[in-house]
Amino acid sequence: MSDDITTVLPAAGDTPGRRARREPAQATPVFPPPTEGDLVQAELPPDPFPQLPSDLATLDARGITAWFGDHQVLDRVSLTMPAGEVTALIGPSGCGKSTFLRILNRMHELVPSASLAGEVLLDGVDIYDTGRKLTEARRDIGMVFQKPNPFPAMSIYDNVIAGLRLTGVRASRDEKDYLVERSLASAGLWKEVKDRLRQPGGGLSGGQQQRLCIARSLAVKPKVLLMDEPCSALDPTSTRVIEETMGELQKEVTIVIVTHNMQQAQRVSQQCAFFLASQGQPGHIVEHGDTAAMFDSPIDPRTYDYVNGRFG
Fold first, then answer.
1. What are the Cα distances from residue 296, in Å, to 146, 243, 299?
2. E strands present in 104-151
3. Higher-scoring residue by pLDDT: 20, 114
4. Share of the chain above pLDDT 90, in %
5. Residues 140, 125 contacting (CB under 8 angstroms)
6. C or N: which end of the chain has fewer Cβ atoms within 10 Å?
7. Are 9 and 286 in contact (CB under 8 A)?
8. Which of 217, 236, 237, 219 is nearest to 227 (CA)?
9. What's the CA gap between 198 and 252, in Å, rounded?
């Protein structure tokens, strides 16, 4: 099988009994090899400690099964999200995409009735390991939500460095100034706000607020950035800027995005995974692989029907 052919995974099936922290479900994940893509050079201030390509992290989900109470929402999902690439999660509403995304940085466990089985490996280390701190996992794997959520009363400057306080990172004023400029530049916002850093973040437009949230996530230098429909509430112009920003960020972080916009998935991602939940079954991956192959020559007819707008 050639590298650009997608992989068909089995449909949902029975799962073992459940408990608060379950043993990993047995599954044999198939890991598509990463492909090299063109990276756009961002206009950034010089970094005294530039991140090398070898610092980019791969995220592996293995045998992920998830419940809310007695309701199973995911069944044995295995997916590799290659380092330095954008992986798009697509599928109809209610198929478990956002739940899967939240599992990737341990937000699933915030729900009292939630439980899961499986492993999430960041460069080979399970983020759910009992010896790993929650704050460490959240620092390494950042999240940008569907609706922009800056701290409205905080200044733009303080919004960006808020993550430092939350993760207990100490920094001098010069270091903070550098991080603010660097993060805002990476998020494509520096030129628009550099003369009003002390003004409230809540005064920015919707698209600017979303890029401010991206900058806030980048300030703590995550290895992976998760984005849950980041453009769904934005106008086309702001959406274009966010997409351009994602392209520029690939040299710094691995990106995983949930989107219902098939054109967006084609534009921004190199890897794609199609989730589906049907006939009362929990969500599972039908097919995953190279984005171009997924859209041009999918293996599973359900994938073909979905990416061509026949359902969903």
1. 28, 21, 10
2. 114-122, 125-126, 141-144
3. 114
4. 60
5. no
6. N
7. yes
8. 217
9. 27
